[in-house]
Each structure stands twice: as structure tokens, then as C-alpha cells.
Amino acid sequence: MTLPRFVMALTVLVLLAASPQARAEPGPIVQAPAGAVQGMADGDVNVFKGLPYALPPTGAWRWRPPRPAPAWQGVRQATRFAPACIQPFPTPRTIYTDVPPRMEEDCLYLNIWTPAKAHNAPVIVWIHGGAFTSGMGDEAIYDGTKFAKQGVILVSINYRLGVLGYLAHPELSAESPQGVSGNYGLLDQIAALHWVRQNIAAFGGDPANVTIAGESAGGLSVAYLMVSPYARGLFAKAIAESAYLVSTPELKAARFGQPSAEATGAILAEKLGAHNIGELRGMDGRLLTNTAAYLGFGPQGVVDGKLLPRQLVEAFDRGEQAPVPLLAGFNSGEIRSLRVLAPKVPASAAIYESQIRARYGDLAEAYLQLYPSANLEESIIQATRDALYGWTAERLAVKQTALGQPAYLYIFDHGYPAADSAGLHAFHGSELPFVFGTTDRVPPYWPKPPADAAQAALSDAMVGYWTSFARTGVPVASGQPDWPAFGTTHAFMAFEQTPRPGTDLVPGMYALHEEVVCRRRAEQNTPWNWNIGLISPPLPAQAPGCRP
Predict the structure, then answer these.
(1) Which DSSP letter does residue 333 get?
(2) What is the pLDDT of residues 503-519, one digit of tens each?
(3) Which CATH class is domain 22-476+505-535?
(4) Fewer Cβ within 10 Å of end Cβ, the chain: N or C?
(5) Exactly one of 169, 414, 425, 428 is catalytic; which is it?
(6) Domain-by-domain residue ranges, the chain?
């Protein structure tokens, strides 16, 4: 062995010896309805990796609903994570870049972290983010050990992404007994919830006390699941971190400035040179995924009248969502790491004010009061944040409260040196390592939190609040302030250097953006979230049913 290879091999051995997986020992055998399974024991936590919840969606089964996985024979060794679902290789590199070691179409697997002596334990099913384009349930930042140590079972899942998870097409709709297509990734999530309902008791979990939770696209997935009749009864609580209630393509109708999902799929197939779905099914999955992304295919849910009966905002307005306790919030610096979503800073304050008045009409003064011209960059960042994430979090709290359910609102406004020095204070997703207690396991290019007592204390508090909510529906953390429900006082919790409760998070923010969305919904020819501030088309005049 040459010296460089020897050094490399020695380095790998040292890293393996230091890793939690290397310290883990064979765990107990669990006799589940899905089959006997043996994971790994890591102290007082058992971990089961790579359990199939559905058959591979490959070949002729590409773009079909997931099929339940049959029970396996013998004892399945669950000591290795399964491949991630196929996703484009990220270019350019961002702080979120964390390339999966393996990607396959055969990817419908889940992972379980459970207390070694769990019995009737609460369960959190975690749905990863990544714009329905990237991500995986086994990212190190989602390690469920801290949750399990608090007596809560954590289940993380993979689900189909990109064109393989969200393509709608007239031929696919014709194949479907329900006459619909798209939403395959969402159907995967529901299949995983069915698997949990049927099997989690064998791992010590309570199938009647399941909390769905997710961040970003995972938070949007939580909203989808809350309004989907197909998911009703499969969960008892919901956590939505940095969700966004954007206008959603409809299966057959062009609406809100978007073509129908079927039309988008047909155009994409034409660009790919495919004459029919059979030819698309014959294409290599990785090539198809990368090419579709290059051509601008943007995966998201489809309002098909079945799985998603109507636009999310309308479903919540009608009180059709699941009547469950909710915890929802957003980060103060969401757009600092997502600046592509924000308009460019204009040359002067005068141009900014003139454009806002031209675009927002009678709402311009309210807009400029919230987002003044004194600091253009900050105002643009905050306006984009609020239109996408702040309004969504508060709206979820408002609508769940109106349904008679407790809702808990938060803002994550915590900074630390590596993030703040990079201009990324409380950036999109930065709450995740604090929620999971994985501040030492962030992605490679992520600003790393320092390993100090202050970060550990904040993380312990957030783990405590989240696991308490999963257990009882009320977020409580030892030694920390009470977190009041949103209720009539519009209460919230701010996670700064320490947790701080307050009321009326951003006065006037919700009312402004609710009015903007209401008018655009009434007009029906403009998306309501992606065109903020300087890139907003002129706002329609006040519409019936909208507040002045």
C-alpha cells in the first residue's frame, strides 16, 4: 500500500471508529407485521434503517401510486440506509448541498429511531424539504437520537422527487381509475403513514399518536396532508416549519397564471422527444430527472379534485383541514440564503417607493410602513420572507384556531458567528440542527454553530418543546418559559439566544398579505406568492369579500 493510500485508509478507520454507527451494536429483533427486523442498539436508542414501505416504483410502475410492500421472510437486517430518491446533481453549490451517496428509483424506504424500552410512545414522521427536488430522510441533520432519548419515536421517510414524483400528463390521467395524475410523491408520504399505522406498535410506538412534521417543502407537504382526504385519520398533530401556501397548479385548468399540470407535462414530454408515456418510462431515471430540471420543470402538488380537492387556502378557509393541534413557524432570515426569490435592489429609494405605489395602489402605504425605503435590501428581504413564510405560518395558526384547535406560532431569530458573519442570520432551515439536537452534524457547506453551552441550551429547549408537543399537543420545555397558544392574543415564541414569548409577531404583516392574496384569488389570473414587491404585477382593486 502506498503512503497516500495508507493515510487515507487510516483516516477512514479513525472516522468510522468515532462515528455513532461504529459504536452501535446489534439491536433486538422486532416482530412487526411487515416482517422480523433487526437494527442497531446505540445505548438506550434502537435504530432501524432502510425499511421498505412500498414496492419499487420502477419500469411500468413509474408514475403510478405506490404499492404496499409485502411482508418479507426471515430477519431483515436494518443497519444501512437505503438509496435516496433520484435528484439532480446540485449546481451551483449552495450551503444546502449534501449529495446523496446513492440514488435509485427504488427508494421508498423509511428509518426509525426508538427508545430501547419504548411502549406506546408518541411518534413523529419527518418529511424532508428540498423543493420537492432534492433531499433524503437519512441526512445527518435529521438524526432522531435526541428525540428518542426524550421518549419520542422519530420516523424519517424518502419520497419520489422531481419529475418522477410530480409529473402530470393526460395519458397518466387516462391510466388512473380516478382520472388523475401527478402527486406521486405525496401518495408516497401517505403510503408511509399507512405503514407506520400498521407497524409502529411493534417498535413501541402509539399508532394513534402520530405527528406529521416537515420543513420547507416538507412543511408544504404537511399542509397538503392536512387537507387531503386520503390522509385523514393517519395523524393526530402537525408541525410545519417554513411552509409556504403558494398557488398550486390545477390538473386540467389553467388558473392563477399557471397552465394546467397536464399541459405542463405534455409540453415537457414534447421537449424530451417522447411521443408517449411508454417512451418516457423507457428513459433512464437520472437522465430524465436532470434533463427535466434543466428544462425548468418545477415539481409541486396538483389540485386534482381527489387527493388535493382544491387550493390549500380555500380548503383552510372552508375548515376542511384535519382538526388537529398545530405547531408552525418561520425564520427571520429565510431569504438571506434564498435571495434568488427576492427582487433586485433598485438604484434609489425614490424608485422603490414609486414602484411600490404603482404596483400596490391603495395598499402601498401599508406596504411601505412595513417595508420602508430606509434600508432597501432589508425591506426587500423581509417583504419576500413575509409573503412566502411569515404569512403562511400565521395563516395556519389563524385557521387552526378558528377550527377550535390549539395552534402554536414561532419565529426562529437565532444567530451565531459563522452564520451572522456570512450575512445569513437565521437563514432558511437554520432551525433544523437545533430542533433535532444535531448542531454538530450539519451539511458540509452549512455555517457551523459553535460547540458551546449557549447553542446546546437553545437546542435542548427546542427538542423539549417539539417532543412535548408530539407527546401531548402542548409544547413545554424544562426550565423554559410557557409557550401560549396563538388564540385571541396572537401569541408566539421567539427563539433568539433563548426562548422568549410574545404577542402580535409582526403587526400589520398578516393583514397586508392576506388582503393581497385575497384580491389575487378573486382575480384568478395571477400567482399570489412568487411576485412580491418590485416584481408584483399591479394589484387588483378591492374585491368583494376582501377587507379594505
Answers:
(1) B
(2) 999 999 999 999 999 99
(3) alpha beta
(4) C
(5) 428
(6) 22-476+505-535
